């Protein structure tokens, strides 16, 4: 029995390794493609506010290469995300029923859509707000604004990526509800702790003033409440499916 369990574990580890290798290969290939698009994207950022109002500098011979790598990686991650999710689904699908396999597979396009919505919200709303705040503080202190291009993009990605990932919350909650790891009652029970965590997250990725915190925290609260509603929707759908199945069985 132990030998059989050990062989099963080794098979799972082998499959996991294969899927990770596939993801890495796709990441590398799309990252190579990202290098060709990086310059055009860099020029777009440079000609778009708030970057168009400032001079960019490099403080290291490696800054230019670092920016190319950074932009290419973000392009690669965005393009590869559906494939990463599909590979994750392929790894866990054996532990799911046929209905759960079908349901979770349908979540993948919505996961990508939520990521893109979060990316857009973070870049077009939150990031300009953060830059406006920091520039205003710099001007009030009478300091000369000299920005390094690597530091500028690092600051931008530290804001954009966490928010983009946070927008995956509704889909993650639906999936965990579907496989019965979460339910609306549990989400209601831990709402106050979730809100506290979201407030902390908002304070970490937004300027240190109340208005900015609220502008980031309120969408995160809305995402949590949407997640609760979607979780309830999934549970009700499961109850209807179970009732329908029981009726069909009893009819025989």
TrEMBL record:
Belongs to the TatC family. This is Sec-independent protein translocase protein TatC. The chain crosses the membrane at residues 20-45, 65-86, 107-135, 155-178, 190-208, 214-235. Forms a complex with TatA. It is found in: Cell membrane; Membrane. It is a multi-pass membrane protein. Part of the twin-arginine translocation (Tat) system that transports large folded proteins containing a characteristic twin-arginine motif in their signal peptide across membranes. It comes from the Bacteria. Signal peptide: none annotated. NCBIfam families: tatC. The keyword Cytoplasm does not apply. Keywords: Cell membrane, Membrane, Protein transport, Translocation, Transmembrane, Transmembrane helix, Transport.
